[in-house]
Amino acid sequence: MSNTMQLTVPRSGSIESYMQSAYSIPMLTAEEEQDLATRLYEENDLQAAQKLIMSHLRFVIHVAKGYSGYGLAQADLVQEGNVGLMKAVKRFNPEVGVRLVSFAVHWIKAEIHEYVLKNWRIVKVATTKAQRKLFFNLRKNKKRLGWFSNDEVNTVAETLGVSTKDVLEMENRMSSHDQAFELSTDDDDNASAGNFSPALYLEDKQSDLAVEVENANWENHANSRLSTALVALDERSQDIINTRWLAEDKSTLQDLANKYQISAERVRQLEKNALNKLKNTMVL
What we know:
Layout: H1 15-24, H2 30-43, H3 46-54, H4 57-65, H5 74-91, H6 100-119, H7 129-137, H8 150-160, H9 164-174, H10 209-231, H11 235-246, H12 253-260, H13 264-282
Helix pairs in contact: 2-3, 4-5, 4-6, 5-6, 6-10, 7-9, 8-9, 10-13, 11-13, 12-13
């Protein structure tokens, strides 16, 4: 795939606007996806590839959010996930018979995993101006080993022009150690006792994000079609369907019979006719 297909994710505060833009791009139907994937696979149509990528940016964001607990920039995680998405689109074979999201999730996670493995640290020091000042001056202002006393905390804070909270936070960080990404062989037996490493919880094997997203997309699509179909019904039929099937506090046939001054059997007939109309409209 050419360099023109690279997707640059804005950093820091701009990530929110990027996410809004990504979520504004409509998802593809199964038929649209199949057509684009076939054009890319058989004709190397880069415009088709671009549409496939753009329509799945929201899925990359969804996956990247699952790695937000490692202290890494969300923009970087999304960027790495986008690389995985582009690799997946390039290798996707529409003849296999699966949706792109099910195929791409493994490539997206692989790129994010590798990035986390290379860059993750439990202790992040010197991330702000105040913290940088503390990092380079804290030890030389300390008179003894061990934790600061309250008086020493106040003295250091006043000397360096930072808050006591910043002093305590940096002292805690500098007294901590990086955690190994994977447990050593000796630690394997102690995992159940609380000795966990990041490698053990990078991914929830019991959760299939691809399936979750496909189900969510299907549900949204079905809800949209249901709303459209309901509008086509007359007012009374809409009320019957809403109160009998969609409302949290559902009405009985007799409730609606009393409301419309008709028999319960007539309400049942109206309900059946309305359901048939909805079914016919939604399968078109």
